[in-house]
Amino acid sequence: VGSVAVSQDLFWTRGFGCGDAIVVNGKRVVVNDTMHRRVRKTVDLWVKTTSEAVRYGRRPALVCPLVRRQP
Q1: Residues 6+ away with beta carbon under 8 Å from 24
Q2: Which among 2, 14, 43, 71 could disulfide-bond with 29, CB atoms 3.0 to 4.6 Å apart, if both were Cys?
Q3: CB distance 23 to 63 below 8 Å
Q4: Sheet holding 21-24, edge to edge
Q5: How far is CA 13 from the centre of its chain?
Q6: How would you class 41 by CB atoms within 10 Å of its CB: exposed for 0-12, middle for 13-18, buried for 19 or more?
Q7: pLDDT tens per residue across span 37-60
């Protein structure tokens, strides 16, 4: 499971909260942070190394929330 930061517009309008699991381009990740409010419609995927980040690059993504379980 990966880790991401989401822009605040997604955080507030789409309901992606800290600790929520979402799917980004078919990969399950957990929202762990938000970005500065000037950043819009962005998900920042955390990776371990700079070379891995460069290899992945910037790309458009399909972001879907996972269904939350009711307690």
Answers
A1: 2, 4, 43, 45, 61, 62, 63
A2: 2
A3: yes
A4: 43-45, 2-6, 27-34, 21-24, 63-65
A5: 14
A6: exposed
A7: 999 999 998 888 999 889 888 888
* Residue 68: count of CB within 10 angstroms of its CB: 10
Whole-number Å distance between alpha carbons of 52 and 48: 7
Cα–Cα distance measured from residue 6 to residue 18, given in angstroms and rounded to the nearest whole number: 9
Amino acid at 59: R
User: What's the pTM?
Assistant: 0.74
Cα separations (Å) of 8 from 28, 45, 54, 58? 20, 15, 24, 19
The token pair at 45 is 């995927």
- Alpha-carbon radius of gyration of the chain: 12
